[in-house]
Amino acid sequence: MSAPPIAIYGASGHTGRLVATDLHARGHAVILAGRSEPKLKALADELPGAETHPAGLDDPGALRELAGRAGVLIHCAGPFETTGRPVASAAVEAGCHYVDHSLEQHHARWFFDTLDEPARRRDLVMITAMSFYGGLGDLLAAAAAAGLAEVERVVTAYAVSGWRLTGGARRTAELLFADTRRITYTDGAHHVGYVEPRNAVFPFPPPLGPRTMIAPIPSSDVVTIPRHVRTRQVEAQLTAETFAEEGAFTSDDLPPEERARSRFIVAVQAITADGNNAAQAGGHDLWRASALASVEAAVRLARGEGPEPGAHSPATAFPAEPFLRDLEALGLFDLTLRKGASR
Ligand SMILES: NC(=O)c1ccc[n+]([C@@H]2O[C@H](COP(=O)([O-])OP(=O)(O)OC[C@H]3O[C@@H](n4cnc5c(N)ncnc54)[C@H](OP(=O)(O)O)[C@@H]3O)[C@@H](O)[C@H]2O)c1
User: Fold this and answer.
1) The whole model's pTM is what?
2) Which of 22, 103, 251, 312 could join 316 in a cystine, given CB atoms 3.0 to 4.6 angstroms apart?
């Protein structure tokens, strides 16, 4: 019997298209899903054998029908503050494993609070933030903190250049930066409220060197990392120059090959009383890294190689270092782990 197909919701977007194309090239049966039937059909013309399934967010029956046809559903349509709940709820109701690209903090909190119990009951694995922002920070934090009993502070620092936002990413960033209900994690607890962003300096190793950062950025790292690292503080930061680059916010219609030129270093410090462990991933094309992280997760779930049922972050779903090494082997980035440097 052939394996059930993998469904991609938001398949016509930049991320969804990368995910669908890669799965198709690996020989997986795919269902291209989203709100626009003509866009889905146009993509299906490029991917022989791909099925389509139009379903709007306001049609829970059609979303459940989609999830019922698939073994795993990868959710690539955003902003997730709008799209997250209907699609994830349909997956758990229809009994389908689920992976998403959200970096939104409130989506992550809702996800763990609401979906863990029904996912366990139905023997399902649900993974949020399996992407670049949020996802790499979560995985690198787990790799850096491995073996440490107590960590004072975790910093996930994203240095990104050449990031030309898609429409979906731009709308997500605009909503996130306008939201005054930011979730922070300090003194071993989550807090919700306005946080004045400051400029910090993060000491990236040479050749990048110290960089001015926006700190904190509203990313799901603060929700997911305390679920698996014993720490009192988590903060996510982004290089200030990322958003100052010309064209960052005016590139909705850029061709995919130009978007592929982004470069990144994600550096994570797990700081203890007497030193710190560091983990770093440096590469190019954050869109491809995002897409293939979710593909790798979905393929494992389709093969039955997932974790215990329930709601997961990337690093609770899969052992962090081996998973990162597998992404490194795909050429997505170079991984560096440094243990026990003193401050
Ligand atoms: N965490 C990360 O690092 C990371 C990385 C990549 C992407 N993402 C997130 O993934 C999302 C998509 O990014 P993208 O780059 O693929 O953007 P994109 O190219 O602009 O595509 C957006 C996709 O979302 C769909 N969509 C938007 N609003 C919708 C709604 N109300 N109902 C149904 N579908 C809707 C669009 O459908 P139509 O084609 O019909 O308009 C399209 O398929 C964004 O939220 C982005 O933040 C996160």
Assistant:
1) 0.97
2) 312
